[in-house]
Amino acid sequence: MSEVKESSPSYYFPGDDVKLSNVIEQGTVRLGPGLVHQKHDHEDKIKVSRPGILHQGVKNTVLVDTRMKRYIPAMNDQVIGQITSRFAEGYRVDIGSAHSAQLNALAFENVTRKSKPNLTVGSLVYARVSLADRDMEPELECLDAATGKASGFGELKEGYMITGLSLSHCRKLLSPQNALLQALGTYVPFEIAVGMNGRVWTHSETIPTTILISNCIKQSEFLNDDEQVQLVKSMVKNL
Amino acid sequence: MSSKLMSMKFMQKARGIDPRQTEEELSKPIVTDEHWSLKKAPDAPSNKSACKFEYESSYGSLISESEDKGNTQETDGPAVAGRASFGLFNKELEGNKKESAENEENDEEQESDAPYKMEGLETTERERRNQERLSKMVRGKSSTQVKPKNDGHKKRKATDMDRDIISLDTEKSEATAKPKKKKNKSKKKKN
């Protein structure tokens, strides 16, 4: 995550208090996932509800980065889904959550009723969660929120999808200067799509290189930057 | 007469009683000895907090915000994080990169101190793409020296050997095409 300040990463357990002095007190404090605000004896307390490392981000944002494997849909998440069925108005997509998501057939760029993209059952899409509620089925869109353009969303053709990754690992892969991906990119040309639901799609020229990329990603979760680069070099050497 | 009839407005007006006044008296709060209140103590802590707390339930919104404010100049490619392409695999995704930046990256990678044979593989893949460009240019234009700097002249002799050993899936057409082009370049160097 690009907003990480790793001066002294501290691990918090559920029930721990976050000291307000650590957090900048200027008006509104934004609590990200994993934090709850409680009033105790007329004192403001921020309690941790999920175990993880505390991060401070832009705009007085505080959040806890938990190592979870279960995906719970949230707004504006970029996810990789697999189409399980199609009906008149759109598609039913499996994103790894408790409920299947719905993708409207018209939620693509430059689409009219007559020129809808024709996605087959079993194909992969990179989409953004536009509606996420615990009581309703999540809804997806293949459009950017602000611009309304595709900008990377859409069908993912060919390639291979890696599943079973932890959500925190995927969030690390999202940062533009990720050491593992940059190192892989110097040796092997490939393209990649990282989903926040614990899935990563990758495509490269040959099957051995695709396997190399997926193995590197799976094995690099607990390694730091230098070790990741070493892993890439050793795997590329054995190719 | 019934009490309901007596309480109607026209009956009260006939008696000389103003119905509005009676309503006001009834609605006024009755303060008797039973009614009590706390004396205002200014030292007592109030329930209002010093700062407001908002909840943000998704990591996605936080990541997109940090991109907008942080590294807009450094990120290349599409606005969406999570979709990336390396080594010109997907030209649409990498189309936003400037060519000068790409050449700089190529130079940096060539100068790196990795002693592995894999470096030969890296240059060959770029060479392969450059030679695809060249094959179109050689027939047309005479000056092919304009092509980008990533021709490792020093490494070219070694790369051929290394490439044959390491990568088992090189296409035979490439192997045959390469020596032809090499001869052209060596002749131009001599000239």
From TrEMBL, chain A:
A single Pfam family it belongs to is: KH_6
Which segments constitute the K Homology domain? 159-206
Q: Which GO terms describe its biological process?
A: CUT catabolic process; exonucleolytic trimming to generate mature 3'-end of 5.8S rRNA from tricistronic rRNA transcript (SSU-rRNA, 5.8S rRNA, LSU-rRNA); nuclear polyadenylation-dependent rRNA catabolic process; poly(A)-dependent snoRNA 3'-end processing; regulation of gene expression; TRAMP-dependent tRNA surveillance pathway; U4 snRNA 3'-end processing
Cross-referenced SUPFAM superfamilies, in alphabetical order?
Eukaryotic type KH-domain (KH-domain type I), Nucleic acid-binding proteins
Q: Supply one GO molecular-function term.
A: RNA binding
Predominant subcellular localization, coarse grouping = cytoplasm
Gene3D superfamilies this protein is in?
Answer: K Homology domain, type 1, Nucleic acid-binding proteins
Subcellular location(s) per record: Cytoplasm; Nucleus, Nucleolus
Q: Which domain of life is it from?
A: Eukaryota
| InterPro entries named in the record | Exosome_RNA_bind1/RRP40/RRP4 (IPR026699), KH_dom_type_1 (IPR004088), KH_dom_type_1_sf (IPR036612), NA-bd_OB-fold (IPR012340), RRP40_KH-I (IPR049469), Rrp40_S1 (IPR037319)
List UniProt keywords, sorted A-Z: Cytoplasm, Exosome, Nucleus, RNA-binding, rRNA processing
**GO CC annotations on file:** cytoplasmic exosome (RNase complex); nuclear exosome (RNase complex); nucleolus
**PANTHER family, per database record:** EXOSOME COMPLEX COMPONENT RRP40 (PTHR21321:SF1), PNAS-3 RELATED (PTHR21321)
Family membership: Belongs to the RRP40 family.
Q: What is this protein called?
A: Ribosomal RNA-processing protein 40
Native species of this protein? Schizosaccharomyces osmophilus
From TrEMBL, chain B:
Give a GO biological-process term.
Answer: maturation of 5.8S rRNA
Q: Where are the transmembrane segments?
A: none
List every stretch annotated Disordered.
Answer: 1-50, 63-191
Q: Where is the composition biased (Acidic residues)?
A: 102-112
The source's domain of life comes to Eukaryota
Residue ranges, compositional bias (Basic and acidic residues):
15-42, 91-101, 114-135, 158-177
Compositional bias annotation for Basic residues = 178-191
Look up the coiled coil feature and give its residue ranges. none
Pfam families to which the protein is assigned, alphabetical: MPP6
**Protein's name according to its UniProt entry:** Nuclear exosome-associated RNA binding protein Mpp6
Q: Which organism is it from?
A: Schizosaccharomyces osmophilus
Question: What is the gene name?
Answer: mpp6
